[in-house]
Design a protein that fits this description.
Blueprint: E1 2-6, H1 13-22, H2 41-51, E2 55-58, E3 61-63, H3 65-69, H4 74-83, H5 85-88, E4 95-97, H6 106-112, E5 117-122, H7 125-128, H8 151-168, E6 175-179, H9 180-185, H10 187-198, H11 228-233
Helix pairs in contact: 2-4
């Protein structure tokens, strides 16, 4: 069985990766402090290969038709196989990987690995964009996007792009959707869902309640109109 996590940087994917690793899932090697499989350069380059096939339509909208319809570029396949070499060559019965950039190339990851277990991981974007991440500027990954007025708007654009890419991609046959906030406040329920999904016991890890709702005391820009629909869909607004 193989597992991967689809979720933007600073969405708390460290928590799910650590949970899987401490539960006996081989997550590749080496891992960094965020429980990402590193080094990341091959994954970054693979994202750039796919990014060139996405077109920006304006108004924070993108056309994903080409990447959804075509087979993955051979260069992409080679880069992903090289990045995942420690995972793919492992004889571990349960294995997987986590790095947020997987989200940037999710459609082609799904085409390469249609039968693995996917965990869709989300966090309130108002919290997610408070800190910087390497994916803040989509242009670094060859993805067309609007010019941002400041760093918070740039992060918001990146969050929206990755959310739209997740939604545009056909759902895999094995999919579990989880929220970071539920892992913080209702960890037992989340672990029960994971145990049912993966068919194995899950380890409990320490979670920090103060990591939720930081936007409420933030004095910078953290709410954008483009978030409203997703906040409703994900249960963050009544």
């Amino acid at each position: 069985m193989m597992i991967t996590i689809i979720g933007r940087g600073h969405s708390g994917t460290r928590a799910i990766s650590e949970t899987l690793a401490r539960s006996g899932v081989y997550m590749g090697e080496p891992l960094n402090r965020s429980w990402d499989l590193v080094p990341p350069e091959k994954m970054y380059e693979a994202c750039r290969v796919m990014g060139q096939y996405v077109s920006y339509l304006g108004d924070w909208r993108w056309d994903f038709a080409k990447v959804l319809d075509m087979k993955p570029d051979p260069a992409f396949i080679r880069l992903i196989e090289e990045y995942l070499s420690s995972v793919l060559s492992s004889g571990a019965p349960t294995k997987g990987w986590k790095i947020p950039e997987t989200t940037l190339c999710y459609p082609w990851i799904l085409k390469m690995f249609p039968d693995i277990h996917y965990i869709h991981w989300v966090r309130d974007p108002r919290d997610c964009i408070l800190s910087g991440h390497v994916t803040d500027d989509l242009r670094d990954f060859g993805i067309e996007c609007p010019a941002a007025h400041d760093i918070r708007e740039m992060r918001a654009i990146s969050w929206k792009y990755q959310r739209e890419l997740m939604k545009a991609t056909p759902e895999p046959s094995r999919l579990l959707k989880l929220r970071f906030e539920d892992m913080v406040f209702h960890q037992d329920e989340v672990l029960n869902k994971l145990e049912s999904f993966l068919g194995m016991p899950m380890a409990k890890i320490e979670m920090r309640p103060d990591s939720v709702g930081r936007w409420k005391t933030d004095e910078g820009a953290h709410m954008f109109d483009a978030f409203k629909k997703d906040l409703l869909e994900c249960g963050y607004l009544a």
